[in-house]
Write a structure and sequence with these properties.
Thrombin, subunit H, disordered N terminus, alpha+beta, seven-stranded antiparallel sheet, six-stranded antiparallel beta barrel, 6 helices, disordered C terminus
């Protein structure tokens, strides 16, 4: 019974943590981020341009010298540099707000077939004037708790310039109901390196397939856009009731990021507990039987 009590207490603490106030202002989630005040709130967002494969991804500043994005942006060969555009609502417009990368670091375990470990870090050097135009997006160093007894849901927002149902090159945001459990991705089995989410209102929310954009909960980034999944759907360009947005769970990569970015946290509280604890490996039915026997 003590084991069950501790487990329930751990779950309750996770829920209570979601009620804590945000550390930074959260972007209002609208279909199209075209207003000046909105882009100022999202001044951490950038578009990543790789001229070697013509891909455009989303990224965001986690430090004034570092942008986090998806490794997918650099598929197709050895990439030495890319261009970063910032402070824009439409990446196709000409702008003076751009900077070239100094170095690019792709996660060493990235798999371009499964999109596992789909992360990349871009080092940049901004002038003093440019540095004043951007913001740094803080990471949630508490994180989600891998669920056993409850399927916790969080209201979050995804931002990105990716391919979308409006067929434009604008910065978009989508309201998402986010989960962190084995069944979070519908017909696709989820593991502890991913978060999965569904549109809060599929009929009104824009559908977009982005790579590298942030998933923001309570004003803090918790994930990086990884892949758009469809269950039993013929047209992958259209989102439906069984479409799932998958994100690399940022907590799983704190140590890797910290190895390059000194200002970034080196560990996430709940992911550290998850890695060191064995309770998550015990089936729920076994937990119930233990309780009955005691």
């Amino acid at each position: 019974m003590k084991f069950i009590a501790l487990l329930l207490l751990h779950e309750m603490c996770s829920v209570l943590s979601d009620m804590v106030g945000a550390k930074s202002k959260q972007v209002n989630s609208t279909d199209k981020l075209g207003q000046h005040d909105i882009i100022e709130d999202a001044a951490y967002i950038v578009s990543v341009h790789n001229k070697y494969n013509d891909r455009v991804c989303t990224g965001f500043f986690i430090d004034s010298k570092w942008v986090l994005t998806a490794a997918y942006c650099f598929d197709g060969g050895k990439v030495k540099k890319c261009t970063i555009k910032f402070g824009i609502t439409d990446y196709s417009n000409n702008t003076k707000n751009y900077v070239n990368s100094k170095k690019i670091y792709i996660h060493p375990d990235y798999d371009n077939k499964t999109f596992t470990d789909n992360l990349a870090l871009i080092k940049v050097k901004l002038s003093k004037k440019e540095a004043k135009q951007i913001k740094v997006l803080e990471a949630d160093d508490y994180g989600f708790t891998w669920k056993i007894l409850f399927r916790e849901k969080k209201n979050c927002t995804a931002l990105g310039y990716g391919r979308n149902s409006n067929d434009d090159t604008m910065l978009h945001a989508t309201n998402l109901i986010t989960r962190y459990d084995a069944g979070a991705c519908g017909c696709f089995t989820n593991d502890k390196k991913f978060l999965c989410a569904k549109a809060a209102n599929p009929k009104s929310e824009i559908c977009f397939e982005d790579f590298g954009g942030p998933l923001i909960c309570n004003g803090l980034v918790v994930g990086v856009t990884n892949h758009l999944l469809h269950c039993g759907q013929k047209d992958n360009k259209v989102c439906g009731k069984e479409s799932y947005y998958r994100f690399a769970y940022l907590c799983a990569y704190f140590r890797w990021i910290h190895g390059f970015v000194d200002s970034f946290q080196d560990q996430c509280v709940t992911y550290k507990l998850l890695s060191s604890s064995r309770y998550h490996a015990i089936p729920a039915i076994h937990i119930i039987l233990m309780s009955v026997r005691n």
